[in-house]
Amino acid sequence: xxxxxxxxxxxxxxxxxxxxxxxxxxxxxxxxxxxxxxxxxxxxxxxxxxxxxxxxxxxxxxxxxxxxxxxxxxxxxxxxxxxxxxxxxxxxxxxxxxxxxxxxxxxxxxxxxxxxxxxxxxxxxxxxxxxxxxxxxxxxxxxxxxxxxxxxxxxxxxxxxxxxxxxxxxxxxxxxxxxxxxxxxxxxxxxxxxxxxxxxxxxxxxxxxxxxxxxxxxxxxxxxxxxxxxxxxxxxxxxxxxxxxxxxxxxxxxxxxxxxxxxxxxxxxxxxxxxxxxxxxxxxxxxxxxxxxxxxxxxxxxxxxxxxxxxxxxxxxxxxxxxxxxxxxxxxxxxxxxxxxxxxxxxxxxxxxxxxxxxxxxxx
Length: 364
Fold this sequence. Notes:
Layout: H1 26-29, H2 32-57, H3 72-81, E1 87-91, H4 95-100, H5 105-112, E2 136-140, H6 146-160, E3 166-171, H7 178-190, E4 194-200, E5 203-204, E6 207-208, H8 209-212, E7 228-233, H9 237-254, E8 258-263, H10 281-289, H11 292-302, H12 308-331
Parallel strand pairs: 1-2, 1-3, 3-4, 4-8, 7-8
Antiparallel strand pairs: 5-6
Helix pairs in contact: 2-3, 2-11, 2-12, 3-9, 5-12, 6-7
């Protein structure tokens, strides 16, 4: 079984800019159209999340709300590495992953708004996106709650003999809970087709990784279970795509589970209402310097793949698409209270309690 490997080197030097799409493609032969598409997808996640924050401040979104600001390269890179039939389990910071998995933006925004056209019929909200069609099998509010479930899905794939793969995304804090270690152990013992993706955005809520993990190099934890472990630059969309793709395909072909640590920088607080006062001004500046969209934008400009004019056109198209998602959510109906218990169980259960709060226990 493959042991833990050294961190993946992700530095790429683009070829000199030519200003022409007909020149030799930069970035290892990637087509200019594909490079611009990745930029568009990352920008879409950014603008979508910014509008989400705005809607939350306008009280159009309730409950807890956690954004992918600063993690767009990891979100889009993972989406590009997965097949449409692969399964994805996420934590509660999952809006971008829902978009990357192919869920219509209007349905994602409608779920945030608590409308019946949302991915969970409006009853799940920000932390509970779910869509069987695209095989996003849930955002989970409990830290690590998704990890054992992902193992169950991988076992089902193995049992049926399918060639799909499960990707289980989590934050760095999840690597310190028991279910994480139990799940890695089972995955290794049974050779399950699962890739564990740890998003290390430097801070678990308000605590740095160094102060919460005795081994802050989280990719090394794979070695305890003789799994392959790698670290990748989470601000580099191509590096994430390539690293995740390699591990996903190994899991698909050989049933070899693996752990991938993607290092990025959270641009805002833990949630929309967190002012992040625990961060120093130096830490905030470092995060801004590692903004994945700014970095990608500049690399494409330098390579001649993107111009200021084409970037403005992408910005306008993205803004329009996000506005359409907001309009769809705003115009969608609220769920009827009578549907609150419709999905409590997958199948009818005798004696199931369907009273709403404050309903009388007995008829008068």
